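Project standup — Tuesday

K.O.: blocked on the structure for the chain from last sprint. Re-posting the sequence here as requested.
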Amino acid sequence: VQLQASGGGLVQAGESLRLSCVVSQSIFRINTMAWYRQAPGKQRELVAADTFGRGIDYADSVKGRFTISRDNAKNTVYLQMNSLKPEDAAVYYCNADYIAYDSLGTPVAARVWGQGTLVTVSS
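H.V.: unblocked you, prediction finished:
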């Protein structure tokens, strides 16, 4: 599985962006699709996650402003970001958790990251 993230850019506070993460295979069977972000000097943090059987979780800091969604037909996960704030500026990474199978057919947990897309928010 490979992930290709895009959609970052420079916006002013209050504006919107939509990030996209194209997955190299069907996302129908991927357990969790998520977006993380990492600002300079800070740890990577979860922004939003869509987990099969559990639903959607958001970081408190983005609730009501960000929306994660999947388009299974396009193998794509989106992060719609509205009312952006300067503190939202970071490199955003998409992430997939899924079950892979080793050479013996044994299921193993797997995680893959996209390459990151930079979001800059000016005040």
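K.O.: great, moving the ticket to review. The mean pLDDT is 94. The longest strand covers residues 90-101.
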